[in-house]
Specification:
homodimer; alpha/beta; Rossmann fold; 6-stranded parallel sheet; 12 helices; 16 strands
């Protein structure tokens, strides 16, 4: 399967590296990469000077779009689909605006449109949502789907720093872009909850219809006040299907310690959705970053290929099996009281033992 | 796609109901159901007196096994695969013992073997694990994969009841079987961690090699002692790949409040696994019960069918979009102090607002 790549920055470069590192016999090959002329020396004969060398190339089976932005990626994806290339994208702007058109074009041209990486980075969320929607009824989705702001709120909460200090650290660590407005105002999460809601409920939820309220005004003082009331704060997106209405918002919420979102810290994301038959499902993982996002895109690629080559388990390795006793402390209870010991020799010496996790 | 069902009890009956309720145009039909003669009146012309009427029936495309047990299901699954039927099972005993043989037979006969429901009930865990293993390296898996014991430990911790009292309640609620030994001793989790490890690492991990220590001896006094040390207790399965060794155990562990497993209560399951590129992924949902398990099996069915009919988004519904303001209390901060109000009229009246979640 021959891949054409649009964009070879943080995400696209990760995709290139992951595909290049796959075993040759899997048969995936990046044949063309479109990027700025500055990348020509590194990409050598794979370098493409313009996007049409990728999107209209008869050697390319799958186009992976990792450029970001809106208008130009939209044109590229459209051209690729019309040229009967499968398309994989991580671009939430373009997906949230054109989801219906992309899927329709894909269907009309007998190819796949995949956007797993557009929400929740490396979390296998959209594929699960699609599967659930096919056999179940999804009526509620909520979660933390912006790593930048979750990192900032976690730092403010745990380290007592100000929003600006946390934002500077996020930028230094690569968790935030130079202009973080789209994150702080909730625009990024608004795009993502539109994508999730549209797929889950089977009808387009438009970006411009969604209420959003950001965290730009949050200060150390407000956070202290919130804590004094017994709450912590998280910035979430939520949508609920009530008859033919989608109730949806992106806004900060107060949660108690017991809420499972409380354990979702720093750049991690978590999404929960409720199904009529299956109940509540939850997903957790890195919502951003080079390799989590690139992984999700390469997984989409493999999924497309799998339609012809399903999974079969092979017993390829011979493993030795042992336990954790050599690397763990243990709690032991002798019948009267318990203590923690460095190494458990024999559990049968005690009434009860438990490993310190 | 014609389905033959083996077993029409709690799980099998749920599968039958879910498939019967799918829209006709999806093309799934249960044509034969094998169960005890007592079910003949309910199942009518679909009733099969013996399993071969299902496993060797030329009208059946997919066999769904929901009988439980070991020897007889093993023979049935083998027969079905040799007769070129796709097989879907929720039976962890038989999968943990014969995983390699089943996948090999499926491959040789050009059909699929699917066992999503054998671990973690309705959680889309095995499909994610398979996807991750294809493009990434999984080196660590851990989690709560037995709903019965997690229910019991949660009740002991939250309500101060004894293990026997909690077990009785679990039985009354249908979370525990009459003989709960396999759950309490960790045998059930041992089977499940073997299945997950085998698929994740690409080599069979044998049931008999795995260290397991149960929670049968846990008392209220021990729990109190554990809490006094600043810990809570969870009963987990864990496996780690270290070179060519799989370090694996099923045992109670002590965790601190901050551990994300602490929020996994009652009959819920949660599994985390770590990937080299993608980092830590987590999955949460109902690990047992009629419809979660049946959902997972019907999802496997749809996945088999999808290899010919991929997903395309259709904008089928027209939604009205609103927010949560009418059903929620809000925290509002006026610049000096915060308070909680019943209804937010206008966020711009305040310096900061947040919804009570």
């Amino acid at each position: 399967m021959n891949v054409g790549l649009l964009g070879c920055g943080v995400i696209g470069g990760g995709v290139l590296q992951l595909i290049d590192n796959l075993p040759k016999e899997k048969g995936f090959k990046v044949v063309k990469v479109f990027d700025l002329p500055i990348k020509k020396d590194i990409l050598k004969e794979r370098f493409a000077e313009n996007a049409s060398e990728v999107c209209e190339n008869s050697e390319v089976d799958v186009v992976i779009e990792a450029m970001g932005g809106d208008k130009f990626p939209y044109e590229c994806i459209k051209t690729a689909l019309l040229n009967k290339k499968h398309v994989i994208t991580s671009n939430k702007e373009v997906v949230s605006l054109h989801i219906e058109e992309f899927y329709t074009l894909a269907k009309e041209n007998g190819v796949f449109f995949m956007c797993e990486a557009s929400v929740g980075g490396g979390i296998p969320l959209i594929c699960s949502l699609i599967d659930s929607a096919k056999v179940d009824k999804i009526d509620h989705i909520y979660g933390i789907i912006n790593g930048t702001t979750n990192y900032i709120l976690t730092r403010m909460q745990k380290d007592g720093v100000s929003l600006d200090e946390a934002l500077d650290d996020a930028k230094a660590l690569g968790f935030a872009e130079r202009d973080a407005t789209a994150d702080l105002e909730g625009l990024d999460m608004t795009r993502k909850i539109c994508i999730l809601s549209s797929i889950a409920y089977g009808g387009v939820v438009n970006y411009s219809d969604v209420y959003h309220y950001g965290v730009t005004n949050l200060t150390k003082e407000i956070l202290k006040d919130i804590n004094s009331l017994g709450y912590n704060i998280k910035f979430i997106a939520e949508s609920k299907l009530v008859n033919d209405t989608v109730r949806v918002s992106v806004e900060p919420v107060l949660i108690t310690n017991e809420n499972s979102l409380n354990g979702v810290s720093y750049e991690f994301n978590a999404v929960y959705y409720n199904c009529l038959s299956n109940g509540l499902l939850g997903f957790y993982g890195k919502g951003a970053g080079r390799f989590p996002t690139a992984s999700a895109m390469v997984n989409d690629l493999v999924r497309i290929n799998d339609l012809k080559n399903p999974y079969y388990f092979k017993n390829e390795k011979l493993f030795k099996v042992e336990n954790f006793k050599n690397e763990s402390k243990y709690y032991v209870y002798d019948g009267i009281k318990g203590k923690i010991i460095d190494k458990l020799m024999d559990a049968s010496n005690y009434k009860f033992v438990a490993r310190i996790f």
